[in-house]
Amino acid sequence: MKRRTVKVRVGRPKGSKNIMAPMVPVELAHCPRCGSTDRQRIPGRSPRVFSHGGLNGQGRPYTAVVWRHCRCSQCGQRFVERAYENRLPSEDAHPPGRGSRGRQPKGRDDEK
Ligand SMILES: [Zn+2]
Fold first, then answer.
1. Which residue of 45, 67, 72, 88 has the smallest Cβ count within 10 Å?
2. How far is the centre of ligand 1, averaged over its atoms, from the C-alpha of 10 (Å)?
């Protein structure tokens, strides 16, 4: 029995120009002892999330402060990485995944 395979197009069409995505610098946590940013999460220690918001040192808004226990890959120093995260509430909390395009139930009236 012959089955027709349906090709799903992924990405931009051929020949289209590359679009530069904006570059966003990230400041990684570094070891307080040796300064390395090479670190590992300590297994079994789940991150602590403190839900309170404000502005971080760079004036960026955040909604949660997250503590993650890490160990330096270079010298073994343990430390707690503290991250200011801006967790915006999603309207429809759908799990991130591929292939869910075009099938989003919309409850809005402003689209027809
Ligand atoms: Zn270190």
1. 88
2. 42
Domain boundaries, the chain: 39-85
Q: Where is pLDDT greater, at 57 or 79?
A: 79
CA of 75 from ligand 1 middle (Å) equals 4
72: exposed, middle or buried (Cβ count in 10 Å: 0-12, 13-18, 19+): buried
Q: Who wins on pLDDT, 107 or 82?
A: 82
pTM above 0.70, yes or no: no
Residue 71 and residue 78: Cα distance in Å, rounded?
4
For residue 41, the CA-to-ligand 1 centroid distance in Å is 13
**Each residue of 9-22: pLDDT tens digit?**
777 777 777 888 99
Q: Is the pLDDT of residue 23 over 60?
A: yes
Distance 112 CA to ligand 1 centre (A): 56
Distance in Å, CA 35 to ligand 1 centroid: 6
Q: With contact defined as beta carbons under 8 Å apart, do 77 and 33 qualify?
A: yes
